[in-house]
Amino acid sequence: MTSAVLRPAAPLRKAVQKTGPDVWIMRAMLYFAAGFLLLFVLMPLWAMLSKSFTDGDGLYIGLANYFDYFATPALSNSIYNSITISLLVTVIVVPMAFLYAYGLTRTCMRFKGIYKALAMAPLLAPSLLPAISLVYLFGNQGIFKDVLMGESIYGPIGIVLGMCFYVFPHALLILLTALSTSDARLYEAAQALGAKPTKMFLSVTLPGVRYGLISAVFVVFTLVITDFGVPKVIGGQYNVLATDIYKQVVGQQNFNMGAVVGMILLVPACLAFFADQMAQRRQVSQLSSRAVPYQPKIERGRDRLFLIYCSFVSLFILMIVGIAAWASLIKFWPYDFTLVLKNYDFNAIEPNGWQSYTNSLEFAALTALFGSLFIFTTAYLVEKGRKHNWLRNGLHALAMVPLAVPGMVLGLSYIFFFNAPDNPLNFLYSTMAILVLSTVAHFYTVSHLTAITALKQIDPEIEAVSQSLKVPFYKTFFKVTLPVCLPTVLDIAIYLFVNAMTTVSAVVFLYAPDTKLASIAVLNMDDVGDTAPAAAMAMMIFMTALAVRLLYSFMTRKMLRRTQAWRFK
Questions:
Q1: Does domain 77-243+264-286+306-313 have CATH number 2.60.200.20?
Q2: pTM for this one?
Q3: Contact, 482 vs 489, CB < 8 A?
Q4: 314: closest CA among 464, 96, 511?
Q5: In the chain, what are the domain boundaries?
């Protein structure tokens, strides 16, 4: 959806028509932002596409690599496995998240704030953490190893359980938003017509949230089919597309076949993205200016039932996090359960020691700082820019592309593009800069849409008046727009920080020995059998993300009271 073209009021148009220096500055910034997305998203993807049509010597061989892939059952079966797992997790998680969101928005159950906070906990953990916890719960030496009645956790069962934990809050956030926007008059009309609760649910509630359900389905499917952490740790011999890329590139150094798998993985992700975009275009507003917000009424039986359900789901989330925390403190599982801190002595366990953790802190801070400022400024140029409508619309379209590109695919494409000897940007490879740039590109779309949403709430007349008074756009930006949208900028920053701390797939191909991150250290320690230290590092990531989130909430509450006083009058 492109931004609306700014049309100043008639008295202002004459003053606006003149082209000043600020218009040229804005044009240069638009070109720079478009160049960033071209350079760090589209061109690497083109390099990977080209690589999939060449052999090891760089000679063009057409579709030979693709024929070899589909002729190898061990590889081609990964497509079926990935789709099967993704569909199964989607069928489980979306109804679970819908019921949970329904309890938080449509009932009068107690402790809603606590249950919502607990449901968001998986967002603060790397996807490796639930897989490690499941090993301690149901693995060969697990607490409940006999519960599976002979079935192994190392395979599809483990992947499904780990993915359910990982993607649940993503679906919940979408459905919470969908269920929060309802017109009470529809329910009053249904009651007046004598509709039963079941009929009201089927004829009013479900139609009102259908687009939220569709978005949740596609988001969950995409997250599952592109995730690398869970199947890598607990997948065993059950191959999926994400782990195939890793095995081909890291295990066999077969970059050409890795590019083929990357292109295949890109197809279902893109299809899900475009299907979701088409569904959103058909969405209509659920709330009019005369709408009455829906307020649930107390029904003790229903409220208790949803309280029990939300407690059960929250208990599962707490169990996954809690078992990882406990295992990280155990001296020698499962023979000596003495609580010690030796698993946190990373200098004695992992080659990089604590440096991996400090690297992650630096990496996350740089990503949050530069990413939030760059993305918000770019969104401002798109939404509030003067003239150059074709460039602004094109930049907005480019900003949508990263949402359809899996992290594994983006990271692999960076190898082919930035590691090429004839690329003048080759010096970026194996540096902290390439990690930051790739992560900003990977999580660009959500941050961009968040900023656009906030900017649309500011009256366009502010920019029109500034132009009529010949005030440079950058002064309006710093003195009006940025202060008003400060909460959104901070939200983008914390979003980028947490995702930078927890990401694995987007950086697994790009780190160097001196830039190894904490999430990569978890992966490496688990590979060599140091499961307890891996759980300890995963908990460090979780606790850091949680601490930063709490600190952010505490600090911004006071700061916003001071800088956003107009919001609280």
A1: no
A2: 0.85
A3: yes
A4: 96
A5: 77-243+264-286+306-313
